[in-house]
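Hi everyone, sorry if this is the wrong subforum. Our group has a chain we'd like a structural model of before ordering constructs, and none of us has done structure prediction before. Sequence below.
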Amino acid sequence: MQDYPDYQAQFHQRWGHLKDAHVRALAWLLSSPDLLDQQSPVWRGAIVAPVLPSPQLLDPWLSHLDLYPGPLHQALHHAPTKRLGLYAEILFAFFLAETGKLFAHGLQVNDEQAHTVGEFDFLVREGEGLVHWELATKFYFFFSGAVSGQSGAPDLFSYLGPNLADTLGAKMKKIVQQQLRLGMHPAAKKFLPLPLLRSQALVKGWLFYRDTEAGRSGPAVDGVSEHHCRGHIWTLCDVQDMQECEGVILQRLAWLAPVQMAVDAVFGKQELLAQIKSHFSISTAPLLLAITVIRDGMAREVRRGMLIPDDWWDRARTSR
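Answer:
Right subforum, don't worry. Here is the predicted structure as tokens:
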């Protein structure tokens, strides 16, 4: 089997000492590569990659939190959720609150008729003003048959959501043209006691590719960072053909960081195949499989792939 792909290796090297799963997820959220290329003309100046804390500040803070994770667990207990996006928001809100930067999280804006205009994901203190941050944590599949550009080149709409209900292009259009403009709405003024300095989008996640497209550089798509987190797109047959295959099907809230777990918590190839077959006998929802190897007495993820049912590509073509 191929050894650590670049990102998983880097994550384990930097954060392998973190034991708590939620702290590791927060470490990924704060340190992983952005999905989007801030310098791309696609964004027309929209700020899609705000600056996060330096390693000199972040590393000791997370290491201490890993030793004493009680406050983070309490924050998660007070806002239980099965939604990955909301889970990421709670983690991020905890970090901002602990570092004294959080002014508001999930602040809803209503007009004079009490109609909802929108919601600020985060209002963050900066000097004498506020910064509006929209957080998106997304997982998309690259589908070369979803080309929308006239040039025939793949674009942001070539990335499909697991349930085929959205695309990276549609998501970013909504964020840039609607959500980041909330602060300019007249109804927002009464919710902003301090000057709003700017609005930014923080977009994290993983993009998945067929093995033939999953090289280090991958397909060149305008607006997507060259260094984003990558995974594979696999079918049941792909797993059957793997020479070595030990790992675990990840529950949705465990999708963020490369996984690290006890050796006896992972499954062998035949057990994984049985789980996959059982799932697809009753559902068409993709599964996330993390392939692991033993390092320093722990099972650590070395690569990951989204498992799709056999008819997923046909449904993807129809949806486009």
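For your construct planning: The CA atoms of residues 143 and 313 lie 8 Å apart. Residues 6-319 form one domain.
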